[in-house]
Each structure stands twice: as structure tokens, then as C-alpha cells.
Write a structure and sequence with these properties.
seven-stranded mixed β-sheet; 320 residues; alpha/beta; 2 domains
């Protein structure tokens, strides 16, 4: 084998190897077909010494090299676009990390709402005694408001201020009251009936106004504690039917969940985008493939300058 022929075949293998790498990266059928066809053409020259090997070199110069340069440009553009997505993903991860280190956990909330229910039950039992004895003794457990102070921002449901204020309206003729609390007479009767056994159900808030809703154990009866007035009244749970009470995640917990879901979508989008090929380029590559599979291609290779020039023109556009 003469030196010129050997050199052209070596260079041809190198070019085809580059094309193979790009076909693997993009995982696109048309690129893989071009790669396979280029291999066939190379092997044709390698196995038939009588063929003019300079036509193989011309083939790579006019077609393969231009295809590789075009794919390089697409890859570079894609990487730039993907880097923007990964930057957003990184910022989201940082925010998730900050939130996870500062968030009040669902476990602590669930434990503390049990303690709060115990405080409320004890306080209401004491309030009943104070009202019955016409005593001036303070009925509430220590730090009864600390639960809402700690958890209302993250775990209580937001609602319009006007609606919340409507919910806590009451008839003065239907309540017991003293210097410390106001409680609906009917509610006090039910508390006695059910031996003051209630559990925390949910929290509502509008600005600084906070309401804790409680449920009688093993019943469908509810009442609320309006902290601003130390007011206790029976509550119709249907009045807040528009609130998704099944969503027990804290606001920060929901934000963490949303950010993680967003990152999953961004990662999926990045994986698709990094190997995407514009449709117009895919159409051009399809035409290119048709040309190099033509049975008369090798005989007329020097006459395909137009197709090669189209590929080269794509390299100089600003559309990529």
C-alpha cells in the first residue's frame, strides 16, 4: 500500500470515529445511518485498492467534515442552553437545602398539636370550674398561645380576613364569659358530655388573626378557639370546604416539594435538550444521507458541491 493511500485511510478512520462519537451522543437515527454509510464507503475503498482513494478524501472533505462541524456547533449551542437550566437547578438545590435546615418538621408539628390539644382540654375543664364557681382564677394552661406562634406561619391555612372575621362572629346572648374567656353555652354542654376529649384538627389564619379548630374525638363535631379574643364556639367545618384539608405539609414543606418536582422536570428537559437537533437540521441531514446512499454517488462525487455548500452554509448561520 502506498504512503498516500495509507495516510488517507488512516485519516478516514479518524473522521469516522469522530462521527461515531457524535452519533452516540445525539442518539439520532439519521446520524447513525450517516455514520454506517460512511463506514461502508470507507471499507469500499479499503477493500478495493483499484479505486481512486482521493475520492474518499474528497468525500470526507465535502460531506463528513461538514456534518461533524455542524454537529459540534449544535452540541455547543445545546450545552449553553443546558447550562442555564443546570444553573437554575443548582439555585433550587441551595434553596431546598436552606429550607430543609430551617423547616419545622411534620413530626414536631404532630407531637406539639397533641400537647396543644391537651392544654386546651385542661383549660376548658378549668374554665368550666371557674365559671361554675364564679371564680376569678385564670383558667388557661401556661403558654397556651405558643403553639400558634410557632406553627401558624407554616402549618395553618390562609384565608381572607373578611371571611375569618365572619366565622368568629357570635351572639352575646348565647355565651358564658368572664374576664378571661368567652365560650358558647351549647359548646360547654357538649364538652361536659364528651368529658372534654377533643383533638386539634387544623389552624386558620388571616394576617395576625389566628383560629385553632378542634374536633370532638370519634365524632363529626367541631369548635374553634379564636386566640385574639379567647373565644370558643362550635364550628361548621363545611364553611371552609374550599380548603384542601388533606394537604398537611407546611408551607415550607410544600415549597420544598414544589422545588424538587421542578428540578426533576428541569433535569428531564436538560437531558432532552442537550442532544436535541433542530428539525431543519434533521431534514438537511436526511437529504445528505439520501445523497451518499445514491448508487452513483462515488462516480459523481465531484459534482455534489451544492449539497456540501448547503451544509457549510448551515455552519455560518445564527440559528444555532
Amino acid at each position: 500500500m502506498d504512503e498516500n493511500r495509507a495516510g488517507i485511510l488512516i485519516d478516514s478512520n479518524k473522521i469516522i470515529s469522530k462521527l461515531h462519537l457524535h452519533s452516540a451522543f445525539f442518539s439520532d437515527e439519521i446520524i447513525y445511518k450517516i455514520y454506517l454509510r460512511s463506514q461502508v464507503i470507507h471499507q469500499l475503498f479499503e477493500n478495493n485498492p483499484e479505486l481512486d482513494v482521493n475520492k474518499l478524501e474528497l468525500f470526507h472533505l465535502q460531506f463528513t467534515a461538514s456534518v461533524i462541524d455542524l454537529l459540534k456547533k449544535i452540541k455547543k449551542t445545546n450545552e449553553k442552553n443546558v447550562s442555564v437550566l443546570y444553573h437554575e437547578i443548582q439555585l433550587n438545590e441551595q434553596l431546598i437545602d436552606e429550607l430543609e435546615h430551617s423547616v419545622l418538621t411534620e413530626t414536631s408539628f404532630n407531637l406539639d398539636k397533641q400537647r396543644q390539644a391537651l392544654k386546651i382540654n385542661t383549660s376548658l375543664r378549668k374554665l368550666y370550674q371557674v365559671l361554675s364557681d364564679d371564680s376569678t382564677e385564670y383558667p388557661f394552661s401556661k403558654n397556651i398561645n405558643s403553639f400558634s406562634v410557632r406553627y401558624s406561619q407554616d402549618f395553618f391555612f390562609d384565608m381572607p380576613a373578611d371571611k375569618l372575621l365572619t366565622l368568629v362572629e357570635y351572639d352575646p346572648s348565647e355565651v358564658y364569659s368572664n374576664a378571661y374567656a368567652t365560650i358558647q353555652r351549647k359548646l360547654m354542654g357538649l364538652l361536659c358530655k364528651f368529658d372534654f376529649k377533643t383533638e386539634f384538627f387544623c389552624g386558620l389564619k388571616a394576617g395576625d388573626a389566628v383560629v385553632e379548630v378542634y374536633k370532638f374525638v370519634n365524632t363529626d363535631k367541631y369548635y374553634y378557639f379564636y386566640l385574639n379574643r379567647n373565644l370558643f364556639e362550635l364550628f361548621d367545618i363545611n364553611l371552609i370546604a374550599e380548603i384542601d384539608l388533606s394537604n398537611t405539609l407546611s408551607k415550607r414543606g410544600r415549597l420544598i416539594h414544589e422545588l424538587k418536582d421542578k428540578n426533576d422536570k428541569l433535569i428531564n428537559r436538560a437531558n432532552i435538550l442537550k442532544a436535541s437537533i433542530p428539525q431543519e437540521i434533521r431534514n438537511l441531514l436526511t437529504e445528505h444521507y439520501k445523497k451518499i446512499t445514491d448508487i452513483d454517488f462515488l462516480q459523481n462525487i465531484s459534482n455534489f458541491d451544492v449539497q456540501a455548500n448547503i451544509l457549510k452554509t448551515m455552519l455560518n448561520t445564527d440559528t444555532l
